Amino acid sequence: MFETVINKLLEGAVVCPVTDARSYDYLANGNGLEDANEFLARIGRRIISPANGGAFYLVYTDPNAVKRPEMKTLHTRIMTETRPVLDFLELCMQAMHRDDMLSAGDAVQAIEIGKEIDNDSKLRSDLREIVTQLRGKSGETDRERLEVVLSRMEQWGYLKLENAERQIYRVTGMIDVFQDHVAFFIENAPGAEEFVQEVEQEGLLL
User: Fold this and answer.
1) Which of 134, 51, 57 is nearest to 88 (CA)?
2) 161-178 pLDDT tens trace
């Protein structure tokens, strides 16, 4: 299990109960995390959890060791994902009548959200705006648009399809890691703080 976990983390995976329960249990219980970090320290890496817990991912022991290409990749990813991800979370909160943000382990029921969108013109407008931000296949109906958005969130790692027949997705630990990535991005990328502030001022939640 040690080798499996190390390789997953080195490939950039976020390990949580939703994406990989066995690897998560290995790190969360016993000496798994200590053993893994002892090994990774030799190459200047370590495993941490986001502020909310519930997941594990790999970072450099020294943040200044992040290589320029990696920083550029993170910059591109945050610039691409921040607005649609936050808009998607806001859409889900409204459709599910929640006051709190979705977190790892929460269920996203596409059929129920679709019904809410059908009966709410603002939700329909918000959905179309998210699809526009994704700059890809848009879909002809609101149901198709919702599928496009859910598919992209799954592709980016924020959701995992749990039941295809009932169209139930599960939120992964990536949603909490995302918050950490945004914070790192703000601290280390020129213009990042202004970009995130602009998104927040549009009524989004971070």
Assistant:
1) 134
2) 999 999 999 999 998 888
DSSP string, 149-199: HHHHHHHHTSEEEEETTTTEEEE-THHHHHHHHHHHHHHHSTTHHHHHHHH
Terminal Cα distance for the chain, rounded: 35
CA distance 196 to 105: 26
pLDDT in tens, 98-134: 988 888 899 999 999 999 999 999 999 999 999 998 8
Q: How far apart are CA 83 and CA 40, in angstroms?
A: 33
3-state helix, strand, coil split of the chain in percent (to 5) is 60, 10, 30
- For residue 188, give the amino acid letter: N
**Contact predicate 51/103, CB 8 Å:** no
Residue 38, token pair as written in the block: 């002892």
> Length of the chain in residues, anyone?
206
